[in-house]
Amino acid sequence: MQMIAVLLIKLLNILTWLILIQCLMSWFPGARYSKAYEILSMFTEPLVGPIREVLFRYIDIPIDFSPIIAFFVISMVKNLIYSLVW
Q1: What residue spans of the chain are helical by DSSP H?
Q2: 48-72 pLDDT tens trace
Q3: Where is the signal peptide (predicted)?
């Protein structure tokens, strides 16, 4: 059981880094149209996309806070895994 928990935590850490890299790439004009950004979107969009939809449905702001909320959700899931296993 601990091995599965460690694997899940490592995958969540990788997802966190992918979201962070995608956020940094979005600051550069041409990076959003690159193949690397498209690959990152394949991995991050299943988590960030629904958060973005709900956020923009209720709040009309020009800044996308969905990656920050995704970091918070990932942190909560990691803490839940820690508390269940150890």
Answers
A1: 2-25, 35-58, 66-85
A2: 999 999 999 998 888 999 999 999 9
A3: none
CB-based contacts of 81, cutoff 8 Å, min separation 6: 5, 8, 9
Reported confidence tier of residue 1, pLDDT bands at 50, 70, 90: confident
Say what the alpha-carbon torsion angle 32, 56, 71, 11 is, to the nearest 10 degrees. Answer: -60
Structure tokens at 44: 């991050």
CA dist 33 and 55 (Å) reads 24
- By residue range, what is the domain housing residue 61? 2-85
Please name the residue that has the structure tokens 């790439």: 25
Q: How many domains does the chain have?
A: 1
> Cβ–Cβ contacts within 10 Å for residue 43, how many?
14
Note whether 37 and 25 are within 8 A (CB): yes
